[in-house]
Every structure is written in C-alpha cells, then in structure tokens.
Amino acid sequence: MGLLDKFLGSPQRRFAQLALRVARNTPGVERAVYQPDEFAIAIHRAGGAGPARLYLSNVYRETMDATPAERRERLVKLVRLMAAPPPEDTWETVRPKLRPVVRPVTFGVAGPVGLRPPLSRPAMPFLRELVVIDTPEAMAYVIPDRLDEWGVTADEVFAAARENLAEIARRSLEQPWPGGPSVIRMIDDGDGYFTSLLLTPGWLAEVGDRMGAPVLAFAPDNNTLLLAPLPDEAADELYALVEKNFQEAVRYLSPVGYVAGPGGPVMPYAPPPGHPHHTAARRADAVLALTEYSNQTDWLAEQYAKAGVDVHVGRLIAVEPSDGGPAETIATWVEGASTLLPRADSVAFARAGTGVEFRVPWHVVEEQAGLRPEPILAPSRYRVDNWPPPTVMVELRSHEIG
After folding, report:
1. pLDDT tens digits for 88-147?
2. Which pLDDT belongs to residue 296?
3. Is the pLDDT at 5 greater than 70, yes or no?
4. In this structure, is residue 402 part of a structural domain?
5. Closest by alpha carbon to 45, among 66, 67, 23, 29?
C-alpha cells in the first residue's frame, strides 16, 4: 500500500465512497450504507420493504479507464434505477417485456448469504438460462417472488420469454447473411439479445444454411456473439482469440464453441479424439470449468469458514500434456479429509504428506464409489469423507490411468 492509500484508502474504497455520496444525494434514497465485505452499497428506498444492493465489482472494473465525470455519471444512472419504485407490472403487462438470457452457472448464486438468486434453469454445461424484464432504461432479473405476484409458474415465465425471443430470432434471420468464409461478430447494444439467440432451437442451423456451411458460435461475454464457418483444419487461432476475449471480459460468458445439434438445440462442440479441433475444444471446456469452479470454491470456502463447518472445498485443477495433447481436469480425493469434490475428467487419490498415489477416470469412481451430487450446489459437487472400502479401492486401482 502506498502512502496516499493510507490516507485516501484503496482505489476500490475511494470508488465505494463516491458511490455512497451519489446514492445519498439521489432522490428517493432515505439511507445508504457501504458494506465493505460485499463491496456493495445498501440502498434504502423511500417506502421500500428492504434495502436494494448495488454491487460495485463490475461497474468498478468497467469504469477503470473512464474519466471522473464519466464514472460519476455511470453511478448516478445505476443508483437512480435502483432508487425508483418497483414497477407495478401485472402478468399481462410484463409478459411482452420478458427475455431469456444466458449467464455463467455461478451468476447470482455465489453472493451474500440471504441474497435471493434470480429465477434460472440449466442451459448448457456451466451455463444457465435466466429471464429479464426488458425496459428502455435497463433490464431487471426475474426473481422467484415475482411468480406469486403474477400468479404464474416458472415454466410459464420461461415459455413467454422464449416466445418473445423467437420473434427476435425471426427478424435476425431476415437480415442479409454473407456466404463463404466470413466471420461475423455481433455486438449487442443492449437491445439485440444476441447471445440469447443460442437458446432458440433451429436458429444456429438456419444461420448455417444462409452462410452455406455449418457454423461454430462463440459467446465470450454477455454482449458478443461470434459466428464462423466450421474450419476444415485446425481452429487453434480462433479458439485462442475467443479465450483472450473471455479472460479480459468484465461480464464473461464462455470460451466454448457451440454448434447446432440434432433437432435444432445448440450444444457444445465436442469433436472426437484425433480430430484437428479436439485439443482446442477440450482446452475451452477446461477453461470454463476452471473459471466456474474457482468462483464457487472461493465463495463456498468463505461461507463454511464463517459458519465453522469443517469441510474442505476441493479445487479443480487442469493439466495439459507436454506433447500437446488435450487438457484434462482433475479432482483430488484425500484420505480421511471431508471434501466437496468438483466434477472432473479424473480423480486423483492422495494421502496427506505423501501425495497422489494413483488416478482413475471420473466415471469409474462415480460408479464404483457411488458418488452422488450434493443438492443445490451448482456447478455440481460430491461429498466424500474416507476412501472407499478396500475391495472398492482394489477395483479402482485396476482402472488406474498410466
């Protein structure tokens, strides 16, 4: 910490103090409190039942290179939206405003205890589908409490959002599409919901028809959809570009490539071993898994430590062979340690003090040891304590990875 930081605080703290001043000077805000553990401002609105929380991490990163005036303007806009009274929408008025969006699986989950996660359901590996209410000023995530207000089920909300998206998808297909080896980069200005188009069955296949070749789609962040004809040869450069965008994005989504699956739904691109794209695709899978499990590990470990729960939250690791082979994810099962294992390609059995003894494919361990996922946790984790019985260990060793 530098000398000025001692007197003025860290850059994050100075940003939080600016946000606090903005909030306290915003009409409709009765009280605002900085919550440093969450890097958030609790905004108590006039007539509100409880505080709304402005989490500062994303807007802090997004405005790091902005001028002081631009940074303040961004905060003013956000606080005004949060200070406004909640909309008096009925199901009839809100239904046309619903849109589905794709977010990482830990989005809205790895937050403060008591925070109500948005309504969501699985979309693709490490991704979930959420629903937002689209307005000219902003979009608000639908939380489960709204279902009772509207008198509808979650399935009805998702169905309505998908119907509205289908119209957006139809209009996009009516636009002229280039043929040949063109790479299309669709940048969302807030109204396009381009990454959501991957949720529309048949849309990516239709794009391929218009471009004259099967299409490989990438969504490295919430607002970017990259469409490229499926390469004939190596795709390393394309995947490397997407991974760089993914790692630099404030609101990242996925470095994985997606293709139109049988019947229309989009699915992760998974070329078989020996295919020229296999290694690049496997690395993208591993990068996404590592990112999401890392987010979950940090949050879970903090929560268990605060609650005094003696359980080890296992980290997912990945290795890439020196011979240029595909990446592989590994979870470590330590003898005698109560652990929440992340799902991986393989499981390393280790002893405290002596290290790893052998490694076995995940599917074998899952079957032989009877692993079952813990409820609620996403991405999935599996609670283990002691090693399996000796007879099972013998069977596991017979499947050891060389």
Report:
1. 789 999 999 999 999 999 987 654 444 568 899 999 999 999 999 998 767 788 989 899
2. 94
3. no
4. no
5. 29
Domain ranges, residue 350: 288-397
211 and 229 Cβ atoms separated by less than 8 Å: yes
| Inside any domain, residue 172 | no
CA angle at 338 for the pair 380 and 327, rounded to the nearest 5°: 45
Between 20-29, 157-166, 310-319, 382-391, the lowest mean confidence (pLDDT) is in 20-29
Q: Tell me the C-alpha to C-alpha distance, in Å, between residue 224 and each of 188, 240, 271, 372.
A: 6, 16, 24, 36
Q: Which of 382, 386, 364 is nearest to 313 (CA)?
A: 382
- For residue 359, what are the β-bridge partners? 348
6: its two tokens? 């001692």
C-beta separation of 56 from 40 below 8 A: yes
Strand partners, 31: 44
* Cβ neighbours of 352 (radius 10 Å): 9
Number of domains within the chain? 4
Predicted pLDDT of residue 38: 79
The structure's pTM equals 0.85
- Looking at the structure, do residues 293 and 388 belong to the same domain, yes or no? yes
Angle between the N-to-C axes of helices 11-24 and 68-83, in degrees from 0 to 180, rounded to the nearest 10 = 50
Mean pLDDT value across residues 32-43:
87
| Residue 23 CB burial class (10 angstroms; 0-12, 13-18, ≥19) | buried
CA distances from 269 to 201, 208, 235, 333, 373 (A): 16, 15, 12, 30, 25
Looking at the DSSP assignment, which residues form a beta bridge with residue 267? Answer: 259
The better pLDDT of the pair 36, 221 is held by: 221
Co-location of 279 and 294 in the same domain: no
Distance from C-alpha of 365 to C-alpha of 342, rounded to nearest angstrom: 13
Q: Of 323, 262, 257, which Cα lies nearest the Cα of 285?
A: 257
Report the alpha-carbon distance of residue 71 to residue 15 in Å, rounded: 9
User: Would you state the structure tokens that stand for residue 306, as one six-digit string?
Assistant: 């605060």
d(CA 242, CA 255): 6
With CA atoms as reference, report the closest residue to 284 among 243, 253, 224: 243
Cα–Cα distance measured from residue 135 to residue 183, given in angstroms and rounded to the nearest whole number: 31
Instruction: Tell me whether residue 171 is in a domain.
Output: no
- Gap between the Cα atoms of 24 and 293, Å rounded: 37
Q: What is the mean pLDDT of residues 174-202?
A: 87
Beta bridge partner(s), residue 100: 131
